[in-house]
C-alpha cells in the first residue's frame, strides 16, 4: 500500500477549460511515484506545457486536485506555495543557463538565490554534479558544452537544492540521438538519486525506444493550448 511519502505528484480529475469554453483536460488523473520517470506525450497544442504550469500553480485548473509531496497546491497561501515550489525542480524549453559561467558556478548561483549556504550548499552541488555526470566538467564554461550537455546542465541546476520532483519541458527537442541518450541517462540517474521526473515530449516513440513501458507514458490528445 502506497503512503504519502511514496508519491511525488498526484493529479485527480483535473479539468481545464479555456475562456472560449474549450476543454483541454477532462478528468485527467495520474500518479507519479518518487522512484518513477513518467512521460507526458502529445503533439503540439495538446497541453503538455500547460500541465506543468498547473503543477507549478502558475495557472489554476477549472476543477480537480493537484498534490505535490502530499500538499494540495491549490489551497496553499503565497508563502507556503513559495516553500513548496523549492521542492519542485523545473526546466523550461528552451532551458535557462548562464552561458559565461562555469557548470559549478551555475549551480552555486541557483543555491545562493535560494539562500542555501554552507554544508547544505556543498552537498547540493556535489549531488547534482554526480547525478548528471558533470563532476569532471564542472570547470567548463556553459557555452562550451554541446547541446545535449546544456540540457543536462539545466537539469543539474534544477535539482541542486534536492527537490522531490523534476519537471522537464521537452528536453529532447531537436537533439541528435546521441544527445537524447545523454539526457535520458541523466534522467535515470536523477531518479536513482531519489528525485522523480515528469517529462514532456511530442515523440510517442521516444519512451519506448529507451525501454520504458506503456505505464510510464501519459498520452494527451490534441487540444488548443501549447
At a glance:
With 226 residues, the protein is of the alpha/beta class. The chain has 7 helices and 9 strands; from the N terminus they run E-E-E-H-E-E-H-E-H-H-H-E-H-E-H-E.
Description:
By secondary structure, the chain is α/β, with parallel strands linked by helices. It contains 7 helices and 9 strands. The protein has a domain of 153 residues: P-loop containing nucleotide triphosphate hydrolases (Rossmann fold, 3-Layer(aba) Sandwich). It is globular.
Structural class: alpha/beta
Classified in CATH, the superfamily of the domain at 36-56 and 88-219 is P-loop containing nucleotide triphosphate hydrolases
Radius of gyration: 17 Å
Number of strands: 9
Largest sheet: 5 strands, parallel
- In the CATH scheme, the class of the domain at 36-56 and 88-219 would be Alpha Beta
* Bulk shape: globular
Features:
globular; alpha/beta; 4-stranded antiparallel beta sheet; 226 residues; 34% helix; single chain; Rossmann fold
Summarize the topology.
Blueprint: E1 7-17, E2 23-33, E3 37-41, H1 48-55, E4 63-68, E5 71-72, H2 78-85, E6 88-91, H3 103-113, H4 118-132, H5 147-159, E7 165-168, H6 177-192, E8 196-201, H7 205-209, E9 217-219
Parallel strand pairs: 3-8, 3-9, 6-7, 7-8
Antiparallel strand pairs: 1-2, 1-4, 4-5
